[in-house]
Amino acid sequence: MKLTKVAQTRKRTILPPSLGEGLGVVFPSLWKSLGVGLLLLFLTSCFGGKETMASGGELTGSKGSAFAEPAPYGMVLIKRGHLKMGLENKDSLWGRETPVRDISVEGFWMDDTEITNSEYRQFVSYVRDSIIRERLADPNYGGDESYKIEEDKNGDPIKPYLNWKKALPRKPNEDELRALESVYVTNPVTGEKMLDYSQMNYRYEIYDYTTAALRRNRVDPEERNLDTDKWNDQKQGGIYDEKVMISKDTAYIDDEGKIHRETLNREYTGPWDFLNTYIINIYPDTTCWVNDFPNADNEMYMRNYFSNAAYNDYPVVGVTWEQANAFCAWRTEFLLKGLGPAARFVQRYRLPTEAEWEYAARGKEQNEFPWENEDVASGKGCFFANFKPDDGNYTKDGNLITSKAGIYQANSNGLYDMAGNVAEWTSTIYTEAGVDAMNDISPQLKYNAAKEDPYRLKKKSVRGGSWKDPESYIRSAWRTSEFQNQPRSYIGFRCVRSLANTTSEKAKPAKASTKKQRK
After folding, report:
1. How far out from the chain centre does Cα 303 lie?
2. For residue 101, what is the enclosing H or E element?
3. Which end of the chain has fewer CB atoms < 10 Å from its terminal CB, N or C?
4. Residue 220 and residue 233: Cα distance in Å, rounded?
5. Tens digit of each residue's pLDDT (9 = 90 or more) over 141-168
């Protein structure tokens, strides 16, 4: 009992798991009683398992089963390596020199093509069906409680969640029909029935493990500052008077259906301060086709590009950086629900960092373009990518706008369309300093801009060039930017996922099931 009492009085900061990502991380304060430490050692020795007893008192290490991560569907393995990041030669278009730096990148999984309209529509359908199920369980609509699970198998109350095993009604009654029809609107002029995009809001939470682990965010002042000379400083303004301040993103929807986003800056109150909440309207802005190109007849693309099945395998566009992040969060949640205990090892889907993107695009030979030579077409005049070869001549490469994903040859990493077709969002904030401001190991510059921040702080790095860009823009090292809330008809994205575990031995590359192989 004495040991339990001592353990209960220790200060500690606990990082709770999020979305099944892993076990909590505990940072205990320093043990101040040697007797307690010896008692713990004694208890461990007395009650150790077979492994402890079988070692004969020798240090043999703690054993365990390694997690064998299967190759994610539609992704390829990019093995860790080195990259000379940036343009080594002076920029031929603007005549300026850009920073170049040697960096190293850890291995990761990457989508072999950009996210397609078909794949993004699966996300939209999920959000739509979630809303319908919520309303079918709502007494104001269907009132069928079986669409929500509120108790565990023992009958104890739990946090309610949707029951996806229950199918939507095929022959709905009057109340159920109101729930099903509530996510659609009718154009008062044309009479056309359409999905109400304004309702397609996705709520997700991200636990910021990195910020929570920073020493400056520890509750115990002696853990925040390891300088023992400061521990005896009891003067006003010393380490014991310092307040731990946090910045937390949150969001809610008001009674009129409007999304409100806030960034709270306040004194630390507990581990939940590092859980950020986001609500994003996830429907692509199909009007980008006419807004990006005034005085051009692009109405057909506005009306058909995302919704028409003829464009299923074309890259999704009109998606903001914020919407791309929401897609990654949903894709993670969708995966983890079916993994069981293995979920704690699997890393989140996310946007690639700028360094990861360039490293993957250059291929195993680290070429200037994703292909082997510096030309953009073969000797027979066949182009290697979908871009704008000449002024005003978009069709010289065989396409007018975007092309079907994966029709051009992959680079040596097995990745398609890393040059042209659509430019791609990265997770990195855009700065003129570029790689000069980054670390040389798995470099990343990250800043979650608050709503009230200046607009210039909301620029994100975009890579790869697009169907509307000239040759210079589709080089692997070329950097450009866009504001995080700006949809474009020429910007899409692809996801990456960090490896669940790494190895220091030479191994054969994992075989992934790529989308190209499935066609």
Report:
1. 29
2. strand 101-105
3. N
4. 15
5. 878 999 999 988 888 999 999 999 999 9
Q: pTM score, two decimals? A: 0.84
Architecture of domain 75-115+332-518 in CATH?
A: Alpha-Beta Complex (3.90)
Do residues 322 and 251 lie in contact, with contact meaning Cβ atoms separated by under 8 Å? no
Of 317, 311, 256, give the one whose Cα is nearest residue 284.
317
Q: Kindly tell me if the per-residue pLDDT of 27 is higher than 50.
A: no
Neighbours of 374 (CB within 10 A): 9
Contact 417, 498 (CB under 8 A): no
Model confidence pLDDT, tens digit, residues 171-180 = 999 999 999 9
Burial class (CB in 10 A: 0-12, 13-18, 19+), 129: middle
CA dihedral 353, 355, 358, 362 (to 10 degrees): -130
**291: CB partners within 8 A, 6+ apart:** none
Instruction: Name the residue with tokens 């995966």.
Output: 335
* Domain boundaries along the sequence of the chain: 2-54, 75-115+332-518, 121-200
